[in-house]
Design brief:
This protein is mainly alpha-helical and about 350 residues long. Helix 7 packs across helix 11 and helix 11 packs antiparallel against helix 12. The two termini are about 15 Å apart.
Length: about 350
């Protein structure tokens, strides 16, 4: 016979809205900081020049940028579905897309740990424990890293000039992707982590158990398909950046534009800042300046591409998040009643 603790139940009901309010405030705060920084830089270079560059964009062009970002989200969502099926999760395409897109709402949490909300939804809807679904998150992130590293390497190869730090970032991304998809290596790292720290035994044990499930993703064919999907998705956004620069009169070439976009995104992620906010923008503006793009063009270009990629994704996530939350709770109650 089970019993319910009314105090813990009430606390749980209160904590969920509090967490949502906190995440919303963090999101708004980050957006405000980035906006303030960009406005400050724009003011330093002159409002008239920046406003003139923004005025060059039409609504149709803005729509094209958003459409190319959607290509990225849809392709990566399909990859998430392929990985979920390979892992053996009893979820459908619509369900997986709902989880994937809804997780974008948490993209600007520190280290993107908020995206683990997808694992919470899966636990509610399928009953699978976190350590059983953790490999899905790991392999998805690793696929992004490997795809972006491949794009960066190819873009640098085809561009007339290189990017300072481009090679080290490419190598680091590939190493991280390789480590996250090697079951034995990840298990060994968990064992060593426990020996070195002497603490968090339960956490290290979960990492070891999660690493065993990674064996489902060791197929070369599967990873090649995943890499291709990721490359198509991220190139779509890199191409959007190329179009934007051309429309603003700063055509630096497709290869260089894609290289700068991907490098800045990776560099922003390496800073550990939520959503790479701050680091990605700084890298993008600096690299454009090295290509001779004036500040009155690089500033609005950076602001627009971040709005149509990162912040557009967050907007979609915020729309899908409550739907995913309601659906997961409904599934959870259904499992409890069975």
């Amino acid at each position: 016979m089970s019993s319910t603790n009314p105090v813990s139940s009430t606390t749980g009901k209160q904590s969920a809205p509090n967490r949502r309010l906190r995440d919303t405030l963090v999101l708004l705060g980050l957006f405000g900081l980035v906006l303030a920084g960009l406005i400050g830089l724009a003011a330093a270079t002159g409002w008239e020049e920046t406003r003139a560059q923004l005025a060059k964009l039409t609504a149709a062009q803005f729509g094209v940028l958003l459409a190319l970002s959607l290509v990225n989200y849809v392709f990566r969502g399909l990859r998430w579905h392929i990985f979920a099926r390979k892992l053996g999760l009893p979820t459908g395409l619509v369900q997986d897309l709902r989880h994937f897109l809804g997780g974008f709402a948490m993209s600007v949490t520190p280290g993107r740990v908020g995206e683990l909300v997808r694992m919470r939804w899966l636990k509610r809807e399928t009953g699978w424990a976190f350590e059983r679904t953790a490999p899905l998150v790991l392999v998805d992130r690793a696929s992004d890293l490997s795809a972006m590293a491949l794009i960066l390497g190819l873009a640098l190869a085809f561009s007339t000039t290189g990017i300072a730090g481009g090679l080290p970032v490419t190598v680091l991304a590939l190493i991280a992707a390789f480590t996250a998809t090697r079951p034995r290596l990840l298990g060994w790292l968990a064992t060593m982590g426990h020996k070195v720290t002497g603490r968090f035994a339960r956490l290290w044990a979960r990492v070891r158990r999660a690493s065993l499930s990674l064996a489902a993703f060791t197929s070369p064919t599967l990873m090649a398909i995943a890499a291709l999907i990721g490359v198509v998705g991220w190139i779509a956004e890199g191409y959007a950046f190329h179009l934007l620069l051309m429309w603003m009169g700063a055509d630096i070439g497709l290869a260089k534009a894609v290289a700068i976009f991907v490098f800045s995104t990776l560099a922003g992620g390496l800073t550990g800042a939520p959503g790479g906010v701050g680091g990605a923008e700084a890298a993008m503006i600096a690299l454009l300046a090295m290509e001779g793009v004036p500040l009155e063009v690089s500033l609005p270009a950076t602001a627009i591409i971040r709005v149509t990629t990162l912040w557009f994704a967050i907007g979609i996530g915020l729309l899908v998040f409550p739907i995913a939350e309601r659906c997961s709770l409904r599934h959870h109650h259904g499992l409890e009643n069975d």
